[in-house]
Amino acid sequence: MSQDEASFAEFFEASWQPCVRAVTVSTGDVSRAEDQVAEAFARAWISWPRVRRHPAPRAWVVRTALNAGASWWRRRAHEVPLTEYDGAATGSDGKPVDIAVLNAVRQLPARQREVVVLRIFLDLDIATTASQLAIAPGTVRAHLARAVTALRRELVNDDTTEVDACPTPMK
User: Fold this and answer.
1) Using CB atoms within 10 A of its CB, is residue 20 exposed (0-12), middle (13-18) or buried (19+)?
2) What is the CATH architecture assignment of 3-165?
3) pLDDT single digits (tens) 94-107
4) pTM more than 0.70
5) Is 8:17 a contact under the CB 8 Å cutoff?
């Protein structure tokens, strides 16, 4: 096995679950997220020498997967409502993420949802998130603040979910 193959295999092993989890939160469909992440990893392998040097390779994979999903939707030109989705994404501790949190994240506008996925679920810093989304760091902070406010408001209305389910991720 070459050094490139070994480094990619190590990256894939360490990154598959976090990337699938992040894309699942954004798409609301575990199966579609796995397909999109698989496509993104295939593209990462093709461009591995470049992706390996990227400041946040996982973010590159997630962004590529989300772009693949956008292309999928454009080709189909329709949307499927996600309100009855009951699949469970897992948190970093391996426990399922509360369905109320997932539903609340899915109700956010697309850019806020992308910021939440990269910032909270992949734990990227503000600068890296801004770079991945091609927006200013201040814009990331603004979208994150609005998203957290909306999530808190939504989760407070749900009697079964504690407000702490959505921590303030400002760093």
Assistant:
1) buried
2) Orthogonal Bundle (1.10)
3) 566 678 888 888 89
4) no
5) no
